[in-house]
Amino acid sequence: YSAIQTLIQAKKVYILGAGSSLALATFLVHYFELMFDSVHLVDATSEANIYQQMIRINKNDAFIVMSFPRYSKKAVNALHYAVNIGVETIAITDSPMSPLAEFASHLLLAKTDMVAFVDSLVGPLSLINALIVNVAIEKKEEVADILQRIEDIWEEYSIYEKVDDHA
User: Fold this and answer.
1) SS3 helix, strand, coil % of the chain, rounded to 5?
2) Are strands 39-42 and 62-66 parallel, antiparallel or unpaired?
3) What would the pLDDT profile of 125-134 be if each residue is shown by its tens digit?
4) How buried is residue 141: exposed, middle or buried, by Cβ count under 10 Å (0-12/13-18/19+)?
5) Which residue, 106, 143, 107, 111, is CA-closest to 124?
6) Higher pLDDT, residue 112 or 42
7) If DSSP codes are grouped into helix, strand and coil, which group holds residue 123?
8) Cα–Cα distance between 71 and 94 in angstroms, integer?
9) Proportion of the chain above pLDDT 70, given as a percent
């Protein structure tokens, strides 16, 4: 619950997922952009790029970082950077033994499995869904208003195809 309060109180939310966690980070950003004024997906292609994108982060913001085995050194270093300047941090990882766990303000754990050479991200995605839903519940009036406005825009500009339910 305290991780949710950290997010609600933040001026800006920065989200970093390296490697296969990028898919999770992108998913989270997609929904958080509907709930927060300022959400940034931090591109983790290089460490220089990470710090360039995080140059304006400060203690009024929140930083969500996710990494699973094999843990990304770039993600760990970005977490250290945020912690060193006093940012509230949320680590989404698989174990209290993760290198993210020791330094994060809030630790959210979800198990992952390696299926052949592919990471199974079902557990972390479920955790992220729960995070999104709980933030939406806390911001229910604001979120309801935004969702109604976006539905109106989609309708006005015919964004989606209508499906005849009687076919």
Assistant:
1) 45, 20, 35
2) unpaired
3) 999 999 999 9
4) exposed
5) 111
6) 42
7) helix
8) 10
9) 96
Look at phi and psi of residue 107 and say left if phi exceeds 0, alpha if psi is from -120 to 50, else beta. beta
Report in angstroms the alpha-carbon separations of 34 from 99, 147, 151: 31, 8, 12
pLDDT in tens, 29-76: 999 999 999 999 999 999 999 999 999 999 999 999 999 998 999 999
Q: Tell me the residue length of the chain.
A: 167
| pLDDT exceeds 90 at position 119 | no
Q: Are 47 and 81 contacting, i.e. CB atoms less than 8 angstroms apart? A: no
The DSSP bridge partners found for residue 109 are: 93
Between CA 100 and CA 106, with CA 105 as vertex, the angle to 5 degrees is 80
Please tell me the distance from the alpha carbon of residue 137 to that of residue 117, in angstroms, as a whole number: 37
Beta strands in the chain (DSSP E): 13-17, 39-42, 62-66, 88-93, 106-109, 113-115, 118-120
Is it the case that residue 162 has pLDDT exceeding 90? Answer: no
